[in-house]
Design a protein that fits this description.
10 strands; Nucleotidyltransferase, domain 5; binds zinc ion; 32% helix; five-stranded mixed beta sheet; binds adenosine-5'-diphosphate
Length: 287
């Protein structure tokens, strides 16, 4: 039995084939061009390596309603050539094997919950802070779906009084989480890439404040035992203690069991492969 995985991103497609113990045997990365250009190359990789089931963790939004005729399609993406593309159906029809699909961040949450920072827990959230902000929710031992799927990056926040750009940059909601705290939002606010901002720059206290608001909202809604923060911006490790301290201040004693937040807000263990390994776990359960 061999499992295939696709981590489908807006800039690149990461493919992998693994054995039954999920040891990765082969992997391949392709740039994301149009489906007509990219998908045949992806199909060829899985045909060559003879996979028996496939899991896809994809950028979204996705139609994940099992009752919908468009189940497994990408929906409203700004990447126009992928809009309404029947992602899961295409691979299932062409490869004739069981396929499963979920958001890239739900896949990453599944990996971290079962094999990584949240191993053994029934409730945890994985959030990536990068070009966009997205979150996967693993609750009571299952990934959360629903009307669509969680869109943690678009939760509304309260603007900080000292934010020089309090309106935010999300084309849909302006000052939602992604609109104020993604890598590109930081770059627009401060006039240079987040990578180039030194650790003592005020950008980081503001970023920690917004990510702490997000953590508080998640704690008050889904009560995760861990909040796992990955993505390019979280490469700035000094953010973790700043976020925890700000979270404790915002929660203000309301949740007694969070202590200093050190066990609660943590980096991922399987990064940068959390989404890819999560997609292998999806393949294992594919029908
Ligand atoms: P993507 O979200 O596109 O998959 P990343 O998670 O690497 O990719 O996020 C890219 C964003 O994160 C960019 O806006 C970039 O400026 C920012 N970023 C990447 N690495 C770092 C870093 N080490 N420190 C701060 N910001 C970073
Ligand atoms: Zn938004």
């Amino acid at each position: 039995m061999r499992y295939g995985a696709i981590e489908a991103g807006g800039t690149k497609m990461v493919l992998a084939v693994a054995d039954e113990e999920l040891n990765i045997l082969w992997r391949k990365t392709l740039p994301t061009r149009t489906p007509e250009e990219t998908v045949p190359e992806m199909l060829a990789f899985f045909r060559e390596n003879q996979v028996d089931a496939l899991g896809i963790g994809s950028f979204g939004p996705l139609d994940l309603n099992p009752g919908s005729e468009h189940f497994g399609s990408i929906t409203k993406t700004p990447k126009l050539s992928w809009r309404d593309y029947p992602l899961m159906q295409t691979f299932r029809d062409k490869l004739q094997i069981p396929c499963a699909v979920d958001t890239d961040v739900n896949a990453a949450a599944l990996c971290e919950a079962q094999m990584g920072a949240g191993k053994g827990l029934k409730n945890c959230v994985y959030v990536t802070v990068g070009t966009g902000i997205g979150g996967g929710i693993y609750c009571e031992g299952q990934l959360v779906h629903g009307l669509m799927h969680p869109e943690v990056g678009h939760m509304l926040l309260r603007a900080h009084p000292q934010d020089p750009c309090p309106d935010g940059f999300c084309p849909y909601h302006k000052g939602c989480l992604e609109g104020v705290a993604s890598g590109p939002a930081m770059e627009k606010r401060w006039g240079r890439s987040a990578r180039e901002l030194p650790p003592d720059h005020p950008a980081w206290a503001l970023e920690a404040h917004y990510l702490a608001q997000m953590c508080m909202n998640l704690m008050m809604t889904v009560s995760p035992e861990k909040i796992i923060l990955g993505g390019g911006v979280m490469g700035q490790e000094h953010l973790f203690p700043l976020i925890r301290k700000e979270l404790v201040r915002l929660v203000n004693g309301y949740i007694p069991c969070m202590e200093d937040g050190e066990k609660l807000v943590v980096p991922p263990v399987c990064y940068p492969d959390s989404g890819l390994i999560g997609s292998l776990l999806l393949a294992k359960n594919a029908k």
